[in-house]
Protein: PEP-CTERM protein-sorting domain-containing protein
Organism: Aeoliella straminimaris
Amino acid sequence: MKLKFATACVAIAGLAVALAAKSEASLQVNWTGATKFVGTVDPDAPPGSLVAEADKINKMIGVLPSTSEVIDSKTYTRSDLDVLFDPVDLNLDYFKQDNGNTTLSLGNLAAQYIFGKYGNVGYVWYCEEGFTGDIVLPATAGGNGLSHSSAFNVVPEAGSLIVWGGLALTGLCLCRRKLVS
C-alpha cells in the first residue's frame, strides 16, 4: 500500500514539474497571422538605438488597441491585439541585428518583443511565451525591405512556475509524511 501511494506521489510531483517547465516553452511563430502583431511607429527615424527602440515599444503598448496616437511627433498605431503587456527592460537580455538579415538567431533568449524596421516604419510583434531559436521576419512590409531588427526580453512572470513548484513540493512533503507514519 505504501509503495502504491509513494508511486502516485512521485507521479503527481513529476507532472507538476513538467507543467511548470511547459509554461516556459517556446512558441512557433506564424508571421502571416496577426495574432502576435502589436503595431507600428511612423516615422521610425532617426535610426534607433536599443534604448530608443525599447522606448518606442513601451510607448506603443500604452496606446489602446485598434487606435492611433501621436507621441513625440511619431504616430503609434496599435493592432487589435488586446493583452496585458509587460514593459521592455534593457537590464535583461536583448539582441540587435543591423544587417537586414530576415533571420534572427536568438538561441536560448526568450524574447517577448521583436522590433523590425522597414523603410521609415517600425513594426512590433509580441509573444508572451517568448520567441526562441531562429525567427524569420517578413522580407518586406509596407513595400519596404527590412533594414534592421531587435529582440527584447521583459521582466519574467514567475507566478506559474512558483505555483507549480509549490504544488510539487507540497506533494513530496505529503508523500514523506505518509511514508514515515
